[in-house]
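Handout, section B. The chain below has 244 residues.
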Amino acid sequence: MTANKVLNILTLFTMDNRSMKVDEISNELDIPISSVYRHIRVLKEYGYLIEDNYGNYKLGYKFLELANIVRADISLTTLVKPHMDRLTTQFRETTILNVISGLNAVCLTTSVIDNAAIKVSSAEGKVMPLFGGASAKALLAYQNEDTINKIFEKNLVHKYTDQTIVEKEELMADLLQVKRNGYSVSLGELDEGVKAYGFPIFDSKNKVVASLTIAGPDFRMKHRNKEDIVKAFKDTVEQIEFYL
């Protein structure tokens, strides 16, 4: 049995084609049925394929074990940074990766264009408020109400600019809109004249683990196509979530 033939069998399985019969594999790869059975026997033995009661073969649980190893070795920053650089190049604006730490948001990394006309107050390791700005609101919207209550109870909410939302009812309504849209929007909430869109990133347990944000001066961002930004970032988040 050659490695190429085994890999060819495994690569036939996709999200749209999750089970196959022996004759289907034989036809797809143009190899004898007897050869398919021989390869499948070994793949089953090592847990790479399983067979149901109807003679259909599916990917086995060994792949879950391997996936956990991959997840353990790939940090979130390592996974997301190439996507951020691509989006920064595409839209010529800053992209930001944030996570929650306690009652704050923390910037893990940024991707910045050269000679930016305006600087966004995000830098690697910087701690920021969880109640203001698109990056933070894309995280806060998916936390329980206790988290929001604690922010107000501990008097953490205060004005950064005239646009900062400091009323609880208004913030709750804004966060509800974030969940409806699937992304957050802010204009000058933390930085004067800065517009941003924030997109939540979920793990396999449907828990928000980070937010991916595009931010730039409003005089440039208002000329960007919102639909293009939303589609590009949502598509990118979907690609990232595949590995989480």
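Note. The longest strand covers residues 208-217. Compare this with the example in section A.
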